[in-house]
Amino acid sequence: MPHATRPHFADEARFFRSPALPGTELLAARFFRHSFAPHWHEGYVVAVITAGAEGYRCKGARHVAEPWTLACINPGEIHTGERAAEQGWAYRVFYPDARTLADLARQMRPGSCGAGLPRLPQQVVRDAELAQALVRAHLLLEADTDRLEAQAAAMDALCALLARHGGEPEAAAPTTASRHVATMRERLAADLSEPLTLEELGGCVGLSAFHAARIFARESGMPPHAWRNALRVNRSLPLLRAGASVAQAASACGFADQSHFTRHFRRVFGVAPGRWRA
């Protein structure tokens, strides 16, 4: 007798925002077929797995987040995402911008005036109580029936995340290579619509095209064009949020056309920009 095929999740995702938690995008999603190519965000990622399991690579290690665990990504960290269970995975995700968590961390320690961003753990966070608090806050933000309650729940949960699992800002001493890459990133970000060659990029730090590409990929974890495309996607969010059309956002952020923009946006967020905008 043939074995019954175990049902899997259908790919579905909903992005939304709440006036109760400004500076934060929110996602409720289930994925089976979709996988996330290497990408990064300018803000944080705080994902609570609610069913199945998600596998992801970050900073050279692979992790598997199971139900009622957290996958946390810091600003700028390149990561992937794919199913690590037969049925796929379901999760609820907070995307707070860097200022939101930094301000919250300072409010929690009013006597401190340290610079830098708080660090969330690289390893999967196994804290079921915190996971449940974050999901409850996420549901309240989505329902939007009592913004005061939703805001209090979200603040409490994010404060608990920082208090229990947050780390001090990284203070690594800059190297020659990291300074070169920082300068090249500034050049890539200066005008997202400007065509650039590796010769031009290397020229701004006195390197050949070959050495510029090699150093950038080694320090950043991805080649210059891929890093720039991820930046373009990140920079499209405030435009879409302000009501720009998908075509307008694509043009303003330097994508060749709307389909090119949509393809890269979907790789980062799992949905098309038109659905995110809605």
Automatic annotation (TrEMBL):
State the source organism's domain of life.
Bacteria
User: Key word Coiled coil present in the record?
Assistant: no
Q: Which residues form the HTH araC/xylS-type domain?
A: 182-278
Query: Which UniProt keywords are present, listed alphabetically?
Result: Activator, DNA-binding, Transcription, Transcription regulation
> Would the keyword Repeat turn up in this protein's UniProt record?
no
Which one of the record's GO molecular function terms can you name?
A: DNA-binding transcription factor activity
> Which InterPro entries does the entry mention?
AraC-bd (IPR003313), AraC_XylS_family_regulators (IPR050204), Homeodomain-like_sf (IPR009057), HTH-like (IPR037923), HTH_AraC (IPR018060), HTH_AraC-typ_CS (IPR018062), Tscrpt_reg_AraC-type_HTH (IPR020449)
A Pfam match: AraC_binding
Q: What is this protein called?
A: AraC-type DNA-binding protein
Organism from which the protein derives = Humidesulfovibrio mexicanus
